[in-house]
Amino acid sequence: MTTKYFHIIPLLLLINIVFSQNVKQEKMELLNFMVGEWIGTSKVYENGKLSKQGSAYEKITYDLDKNILVIELNTEFLQLHTIIYYDDKDNTYYYYPFSKRGVSRYPAIFTNGQFIVNSNQTNRFIFSKTSDGGFREYGERLVDGKWIKYFEDTFKNTQ
To answer: What's the chain look like in SS3?
Structure first.
């Protein structure tokens, strides 16, 4: 009887690992729309009005056998190196932006074709595909019960 368990336990562990990898890969593949080399425009808004505009470049690739998504963003106003990771233990995406000031960790979700990062209760970043095959990301702040856009980057794929 004991030798039977020696064969069943490793098999169950292997099945659990494979299932876990499949869930993680499926969740990461939902972000395929972000992958590419992107050129576009970055806009900054103050009080709902355009205050700055400049060129932007973003390269987004998978790494570590598609277990993470790596974003390299360069605009005239901001440089970020970001890693997106899906944690299958707590069923949550995590968004890790690295800048000259340091690193943060924010929870995120994928819903209705959008990747939404919540940096706090009143601030979020939204990534989505555009109807012309492009890509956009924008940030919003909750002000007096309304979400107000404070930046928007729009891109076309160079590949």
So the answer is: CHHHHHHHHHHHHHHHHHHHHHHHHHHHHCCHHHCEEEEEEEEEEECCEEEEEEEEEEEEEEECCCCEEEEEEEECCCEEEEEEEEECCCCEEEEEEEECCEECCEEEEEECCEEEEEEECCEEEEEEECCCCCEEEEEEEEECCEEEEEEEEEEEECC
CA–CA distances in Å: residue 14 to residues 22, 26, 65: 12, 18, 18
Position 10 pLDDT exceeds 80: no
pTM for the whole structure: 0.83
* CATH topology (fold) of 2-157: Lipocalin (2.40.128)
